[in-house]
Amino acid sequence: MQPTYNATTAKLSLLPLLIFVALFLGTGLYLQSQGVDYAFYQLPAPVAILPAIVIAFLITKQSINASVETFIRGAGHSNIITMCLIYLLAGAFSAVAGATGGVDAVVNAGLSFIPASMLLPGLFLIAAIVSTAMGTSMGTIGAIGPIALAVSAKTGIDPALMAGTIVSGAMFGDNLSIISDTTIAATRTQGCEMKDKFRENLKIALPAAILTITLLVMLTPPPQQVEVAEFDWLLVLPYFFILVLAVMGLNVFVVLFSGIIFAAIMGFTGDYQGSAFVKDVYQGFSDMQEIFLLSMFIGGLSEFIRRGGGLDYLANKIQALTKIIARFNRKVADQIGIALLVMTSNLCIANNTVSIIVAGPVAKKLADDGDIAAKRSASLLDIFACVLQGSLPYGAQALLLGATFSISPWQVSTSAYYCFILAVTAIITIILRRHRG
């Protein structure tokens, strides 16, 4: 594949992203090493990315007006806006459910049925089922995050471990669901049927999930005597309602909006007031302000990288790397190339769906050259995009749960054990099945 970009310009287009990562993670890690409380919140991510955006404007060869158009095009991408709307609805649902007492009710209901020794694997399975049904990790996290937080506080389980467990389950479903945007993007770019991709994907994801559940059983602290308070089953119903709608395969917006309304109706059976409902919805929106802004800023910045040729430059470098591995086995080399390609793309964009769309055409070429079945290349694209997305400290999932649990996104991402296990499982599968398409 011959380069279609200027190498110098392409390298330069990656500079703003590197500056943002250095500022955000570097400051957080340094302050954390100094024992500063809430180290990653001392420099808010939407502020940390502003210097990177300014530099992106300065190094581009476009006029100011054209640069503004480029930024707005990226910030207003349908995937970014969709994600931001999910943030708002997830925040509103969490706020209303919490205000009506739904979170406490679900926690006590869950503690009544899940053995204390199985809390972590139980919540992993719940998150996995919900995300598979809904097709979105963000909607799942928005619905289950507040419940997991309350369970963590009640049982003393490490908040980071609990948050990582929810991310793990959410990414399992995001990766596998046939209605997930990542599945749609992967199958369309590689030209295969969803059912074939699902079966291929399941061969890798299921062993990883079993290993994760085993690990979570071992990590669950010794059973403690947890007092289960009385609860109103009516306040639990909004969560069951969401689960039913998700299983029916309804759009995530319909699921979350309906959940908000249903939670309010259940609250009205008690002393919850309409005026409080309106305020709680707005408070839920406000709680998502930081992640909302960051997502739009990252979307705008990624458009500069794409237009500057940064992603094409990285893709060609990865292809050059696979030639070295191909000396030993061409099929393994091209599959690893697909994995590196989509992970690098996701590292720059911080959105697994967009990264699959960007990396898809090059991945298709690698698959064709290496005689790799379309279902395998689609599966690898989706798997490794989700692997990095779930373990990315500035990814939407870690940021949302970090805000929910009041911990650093770094703690969330490093506790998402399923993502790391899935990566190892996928690599082992690539090596062991190197002679089969």
UniProtKB/TrEMBL annotation:
GO terms for cellular component: plasma membrane. The chain crosses the membrane at residues 12-32, 38-59, 80-103, 204-220, 240-265, 415-432. It is found in: Cell membrane. One of its GO terms (molecular function) is antiporter activity. InterPro entries: Na/H_Antiport_NhaC-like_C, NhaC_Na-H+_Antiporter. The keyword Transport applies. Keywords: Antiport, Cell membrane, Membrane, Transmembrane, Transmembrane helix, Transport. It is a multi-pass membrane protein. Residues 17-217 form the Na+/H+ antiporter NhaC-like C-terminal domain. Belongs to the NhaC Na(+)/H(+) (TC 2.A.35) antiporter family. This is Sodium:proton antiporter. It comes from Pseudoalteromonas ruthenica.
